[in-house]
Structure formats: C-alpha cells, structure tokens
Design brief:
The model has no long low-confidence stretch (mean pLDDT 87). This protein has one helix spanning 14-17; strands spanning 7-8, 19-23, 34-40, 45-52, 57-68, 71-74, 83-91, 94-99, 113-121. It has one domain (7-121): Beta Barrel (Lipocalin). The protein starts with 6 loop residues before the first strand and ends with a strand. By secondary structure, it is mainly beta. Helix content is 3%, strand content 51%. The protein has one helix and nine strands. It has an eight-stranded antiparallel beta barrel.
C-alpha cells in the first residue's frame, strides 16, 4: 500500500510543525522499547531525545531541518546522510511520516514509517 495523499486538518508549514512530538503507535503488535521525542523550532533546528528502556541509555542530538511542502528533510551529523520523509498525515496533534522512496507496511513502523502525537507546543 502506497500512501500518496496527505490526510490533514492543518497546513503543513513550520509554524504548525513547531513543538514536541512523541513517536507512538496505536497497535498492540508493535511496542516501542523506549521513548523518542522530536522537538522542532522555528529557527530551522530540531532536537531528538531518545531513551532505551532496556539499557537505560539516553541520547539527545540537535541538528537542522528543511520543510518543502510535505517533504521533511532532517539533516544529521553527516550531511550526506540526511533523512527524507514525506508527511503523509498532519493534524493539529498528530502526524505521520513515510521515508522517501518507501512504501507503507506494518513491518516498517519505527524506521520507514513514523507516527507522532504532539506533546506540547503550538
């Protein structure tokens, strides 16, 4: 199944993206082993916080992003490895991403497909 259209209540723009988003999935067949939070700022930077429940390790990294229509480009520490996701669902308090060049399937949750609920912010 290819998700090509965007289910949205809100316009996809930086103003609506700003805030903290928790990665989460409403499916009993997929349980995350920790926490992943993305925080987007109006100045074009984002921060990713991750916590692994098994190892009790925490990691936070900050970098820049670019939003071009529904394409979200997350720059990484290595500029040649930017992550490119299409925003396939965007609502005031919920959004979903699909990695560019991939198709949705249940086995790609957390890697090629990501789902979020807004934690705080706008």
């Amino acid at each position: 199944m290819l998700l090509s259209s965007c289910s949205k209540d809100e316009d996809i723009n930086v103003t609506n993206l700003v805030g903290t988003w928790d990665e989460c999935y409403d499916n009993p067949h997929f349980i995350m082993d920790g926490t992943v939070e993305y925080t987007f700022y109006e100045n074009g930077t984002y921060q990713v916080y991750s916590y692994n429940a098994f190892s009790h390790m925490e990691h936070t990294r900050t970098n820049t992003y670019v939003l071009q229509d529904d394409l979200l480009i997350l720059n990484t520490e290595h500029s040649e490895n930017a992550l490119r996701y299409h925003i396939v669902e965007f609502k005031k308090n919920e959004m979903a991403w699909q990695m560019e060049g991939t198709e949705y399937s249940g086995g790609t949750w957390g890697s090629e497909y990501k789902h979020f609920k807004r934690k705080k912010g706008k």
